[in-house]
Write a structure and sequence with these properties.
Blueprint (H helix, E strand, L loop, with lengths): L1 H28 L3 E3 L2 E3 L3 E8 L8 E7 L4 E6 L5 E7 L5 E12 L5 E9 L6 E3 L2 E5 L3 E4 L18 E5 L9 H9 L11 H28 L1
Parallel strand pairs: 2-12
Antiparallel strand pairs: 1-3, 3-8, 4-7, 4-10, 5-8, 6-7, 9-12, 10-11
């Protein structure tokens, strides 16, 4: 009887650790991200918004990206996989862009859209791009912003955020930086390792191993 109980405890510990190791990184990385997440003040560059999951596992049909104040220009990138609808405000500037997929994007595939944005001297230090992800069933609003001192990773549905930094010489960025952004694709956030996800996954695996060790020790004592 003791042997059966111990074996069941060992199995439960292994399965529990494996589930935590695999499930937690998936939950932590299931968001709409932007790359690059930093631009130089007064410059312009290409932003890529990407995702790897739908709404509760439902395929994605569209992304609506709202523009923050402080952008001098916005030019969505043409893409044969998406139709593009541009909304403009009373000032004539682009206020929102909706990308609609010609075919729903399955959960097994990564989806991405991009646009060129220009900054000027009035651009704030932080640019938040609220995104509404619509799926075949349901939708998710990636609009939450972290309060001062709050970890963005703790949010359930964080909005993609781009930080604006001063150029090395303290002046506005030039065209060279923009050319580099066009010719050298920045690593996408959806492809880059998520430090938090990795740490949480490792924690789950360690928990499983710990449960296994405790169970084995308990078995030996009873034996």
């Amino acid at each position: 009887m003791h042997t059966f109980t111990t074996r069941r405890t060992v199995t439960t510990g292994i399965i529990g650790g494996a589930v935590l190791a695999l499930a937690i990184p998936m939950m932590a990385s299931a968001h709409v991200s932007v790359s690059p997440d930093e631009l130089v003040a007064g410059d312009h560059g290409v932003l890529t918004f990407s995702f790897a999951h739908g709404c509760d596992n439902s395929p994605t049909t569209s992304l609506r990206v709202t523009m923050p104040e402080g952008l001098a220009s916005v030019a969505p990138t043409m893409d044969s996989d998406w139709t593009i609808d541009i909304e403009k405000g009373d000032d004539g500037l682009v206020s929102a862009v909706t990308y609609t997929a010609l075919a729903p994007v399955p959960n097994e595939l990564r989806g991405a859209v991009s646009m060129s944005v220009g900054l000027d001297e009035n651009t704030p230090d932080t640019l938040a791009f609220p995104v509404v992800q619509t799926c075949v069933e349901g939708s998710t609003e990636w609009t939450q912003l972290a309060e001062e001192g709050e970890d963005p990773h703790s949010l359930d549905a964080p909005a993609p955020v781009v930080n604006v930094v001063a150029s090395a010489d303290g002046e506005h960025g030039g065209h060279d930086a923009a050319d580099d952004a066009d010719t050298e694709e920045a690593p996408d956030a959806a492809d880059a390792p998520d430090a938090l996800a990795t740490a949480l996954g490792a924690g789950g695996l360690v928990a499983g191993i710990a449960a296994l060790v405790v169970s084995v020790l308990a078995y030996r004592r009873r034996a």
